[in-house]
């Protein structure tokens, strides 16, 4: 099996001892992406829809650097601070996954790194 670490400036740098993603043969795995704006380092936490959009943009950037895309995602895991935001998250999520509906888990967690409000990770197949 061939493993390649994924690194892109189009997504925030890892906040710990891990990579943004890993390509393993035809699969691309992203690490959990918080809603950091890569250009400024700002963590979006005041608007769940803006935060969801930024986290998905970060996932997209890592996928693309790894040779995959949102259209080749097979599994998404979403971690949220407040399940009350479920429908607001789904509205934004549906913008990114219109006709393609990968498997997904969405779970409420007690706390996320940097006190984020959402974190999203994905598994995809290379294009």
Question: Care to describe what's here?
Answer:
The chain has 127 residues and is an alpha+beta fold. It has a single domain, classed as RutC-like (60s Ribosomal Protein L30, Chain: A, 2-Layer Sandwich), CATH 3.30.1330. Helix content is 23%, strand content 27%. The chain contains two helices and six strands; from the N terminus they run βββαβαββ. It has helices at 48-65, 86-96, and strands at 3-6, 21-24, 27-30, 73-80, 103-108, 118-125. The chain has a six-stranded mixed beta sheet, covered by helices on one side. Helix 2 links the parallel strand 4 (73-80) and strand 5. Helix 1 (48-65) runs parallel beside helix 2 (86-96). The chain starts with a strand and ends with a strand. The model has no long low-confidence stretch (mean pLDDT 97).
CATH class value: Alpha Beta
Structural class: alpha+beta
Percent in helix? 10-25%
Spatial gap, N to C terminus = 18 Å
Structural Rg? 14 Å
CATH topological fold name: 60s Ribosomal Protein L30, Chain: A
Whole-number total of structural domains: 1
| Average pLDDT | 97
Backbone shape: globular
Tell me the strand percentage band. Answer: 25-35%
The ordered H/E elements are EEEHEHEE
Largest sheet: 6 strands, mixed
Q: Please report the total strand number as a whole number.
A: 6
